[in-house]
Amino acid sequence: MKFHFRRPRRVRLSYRTLIWSAISSLTLLPILLCHDTSAANQETPPPAPSLTAPATEPQAPRIVFQELLHDFGTLEQGDQVNHLFKFTNQGSRDLRIESVKTSCGCTAAVVSSEVTAPGQEGMISATFDTSKFFGERVKTVSVHSNDPLQPVTTLTLQGVIAVEVTIEPIQLYLGRVRRGANTTHTIELLHDTNKPISITDATVTSPLIRLRSEDLEKNGKKGKKLFVTLRKDAPLGRVSTDITVTTTSQKHPTLSIPVFGHIEGDMLVQPPQVSFGVVRKGDTKQQDIRIKSRSSKPVHIVRTQSSTSTVIAEVATVKDGEEYSLTLKVNPEGTAGQIRGEVQVFTDHPAEKVLSIPVYGMLSEPGAEKK
Fold first, then answer.
1. pTM surpassing 0.90?
2. What is the spatial distance between Cα 221 and Cα 24, in angstroms, rounded to a whole number?
3. In the CATH hierarchy, which fold is given to the domain comprising 267-370?
4. Which of 2, 61, 175, 282 supports an S-S bond with 95, CB 3.0-4.6 Å?
5. How far apart are the first and last CA of the chain?
6. Omega before 350 cis (within 30°)?
7. pLDDT for the residue numbered 192
């Protein structure tokens, strides 16, 4: 018996089959790559919240007041307001009160220790004298401390000050009056008709002022109207006096009204006084003054004279008989120290022969102002 062996049959792949197999492999590769890298591209989960406590603030004092404003309500003029502002040091270091500053008419002071330990209390005493005030008033106290978050704390006193007799205006400014001018001003004094008060008299201390009064009723109140007249023959210069009013009030039997102004003549000096400030020795500083004549006749400057050797005066003519320029210079070689005196200007005016110009300042040694 004969056996016949067959060779294994070779599998022949056609060219088309090979091409499609290659294409299939290339198509599958990106899918595999995408699958492999997708895990790497996933978002990283956020970290767990930290349990560490935030850093504590640096140790420091802390000033905390129980109140920042005190309303004292309505008081009669002349009453005094006294109030204690209490505070606590809520910090962890000593609190130091460095200074206490107040507005006009008010005083304040530390009545406890200037150094307050942590957790301890302190007090600021504030006092307000109402004698010279009326109507709604607000006064402040500034407390300066070493609290780094609040170095300045403002405390406030507020309220209404009632008066039995109101004065309008409370002081009378006459202004700069030409000598010989007919100048009259008025002052009104009023009080509540329901109060048993009357104005009995009004007088003035200066002979330069003439005063008369008449009854006045206004806005449901009654009182007096004062007519204040400056005499035509009043001498040149400053006017300063007081009008004293007498009333039947038990709290304020007398009232004082300041009156002030300046009487000018034919010769007008601008500015009327000079301040040089601080001048270093060796430096030159000057101030210019204009002197004008309002006289109907020509007026000439004859000479000048300085009461201090530190100030030198020089005159120049702007318009002869009418206007002059006066230059005041600090002598750079003068003696160091305070400058205080006057420069006198002599004229041929029959009534205004001497014009006085006050001078002020300080002449210092080189480098002294830096010490």
1. no
2. 114
3. Immunoglobulin-like (2.60.40)
4. 61
5. 140
6. no
7. 83
CATH 1.20.1250.20 assigned to domain 165-264? The reply is no
Buried-state track 244-272, b at ≥16 Cβ within 10 A, e below 16: ebebebeebeebebebebebbbbbbbeee
* Whether the Cβ atoms of residue 91 and residue 60 lie closer than 8 Å to each other: yes
Give the start-to-end residue ranges of the domains of the chain.
Answer: 63-162, 165-264, 267-370
Asked if residues 289 and 267 have their Cβ atoms less than 8 Å apart, the reply is no
Instruction: Using the CB atoms, write b or e for 300-319: b if 16+ within 10 Å.
Output: ebeebebebebbbbeeeeee
| Residue pointed to by tokens 């089959």 | 17
Q: How far apart are CA 77 and CA 159, in angstroms?
A: 12
Give the residue-averaged pLDDT of 174-179.
89
Q: What is the mean pLDDT of the chain?
A: 83
Distance CA(234)–CA(255), nearest Å, equals: 26
The single-letter DSSP state of residue 345 is: E
Distance, in Å, from the CA atom of 29 to the CA atom of 26, rounded to the nearest integer, reads 5
Phi, psi at 202, each rounded to 5°: -145, 125
Q: Which residue has the tokens 């899918």?
A: 31
| Backbone torsions φ then ψ of 346, nearest 5 degrees | -95, 130
